[in-house]
Design a protein that fits this description.
This protein is 42% helix and 24% strand. By secondary structure, it is α/β, with parallel strands linked by helices. The longest helix is centred in the C-terminal third of the chain and has 19 residues, at 119-137. The protein is globular. The two termini are 14 Å apart. The model has no long low-confidence stretch (mean pLDDT 83).
């Protein structure tokens, strides 16, 4: 039986970065950065082609690890995702420092597909980092 795909999201008030895990759930791959509404359409397409089993969304905790104003905004988007993708599990992943990591990764040119500068590239890279950290924190790979 084919398992559904995992998708990573870096939510922002202006842009939403999206990444998708490979079928073996080992690596995240960048998809792109979109407006909030465009992101939902992209997720619809991914779901139609691959069936999304889980959406890993960056949860913007405060420096001290507590929820704050940013988590309220993300929760509103999570609610939209839950209504639209009823069968997908929504996973909140601590995203502290992912934007900084994404900026450093792009600056160092660690990912050739993300070498171009710009906020949209950073958001896409951050989505990939959020998803990759989740993949590394869980045993989500297929059995051998």
């Amino acid at each position: 039986m084919m398992r559904g795909r995992l998708v990573g999201i870096d939510y922002g008030t202006k842009r939403v970065g999206i990444a998708i895990a490979d079928p073996f759930r080992m690596f995240s791959q960048p998809v792109g950065t979109y407006s909030q509404d465009e992101a939902l359409l992209i997720l619809d397409r991914i779901n139609a082609e691959n069936w999304i089993s889980s959406i890993v969304i960056g949860w913007p905790l405060e420096e001290d690890g507590k929820a704050g104003p940013a988590t309220v905004r993300v929760q509103q988007y999570v609610n939209r995702l839950k209504k639209r993708f009823k069968k997908a599990e929504i996973i909140l992943q601590d995203e502290r420092y992912t934007t900084q990591s994404a900026k450093e990764m792009i600056k160092e040119g660690a990912r050739p597909s993300l070498k171009k500068t710009g906020r949209a590239r950073i958001d896409t890279a951050a989505a990939g980092i959020i998803l990759q950290e989740y993949l590394e924190d869980t045993d989500s790979t297929l059995p051998s």
